[in-house]
Specification:
By secondary structure, this protein is mainly alpha-helical. It has a domain of 35 residues. The chain starts with a helix and ends with a helix.
Length: 91
């Protein structure tokens, strides 16, 4: 019985397959800095490193990782806000 009820609901929703016009707007795409790839890990030289050099490379890698995490959070928020706007609910 439940299957017949669900199949009856499926026929009442019409999908036209047309692209959503609002997604063609420049505001529908994230700003380029958010969409750009994050920097990869720092290339280490093929030589012995001092403790200070290792610490500097490590600190630079950590700073880039933190920056990338912030960028991904901002990108996720952009899409959540955009999609909420398209759905008609303010976020």
């Amino acid at each position: 019985m439940a299957a017949s009820i669900l199949s009856a609901c499926a026929g009442s929703v019409r999908f036209d397959g047309k692209p959503v016009a609002e997604l063609g707007s420049l505001l529908a795409s994230p700003p380029q800095p958010l969409a750009a790839d994050c920097a990869g890990p720092i290339d280490l030289p093929d030589a012995a490193l001092s403790a200070g050099e290792v610490e500097r490379f490590w600190a630079d890698d950590r700073a880039m990782l933190i920056s990338c995490a912030g960028k991904h959070a901002a990108l996720r928020q952009f899409y959540q806000s955009r999609d909420a706007g398209l759905a008609g609910s303010a976020r």
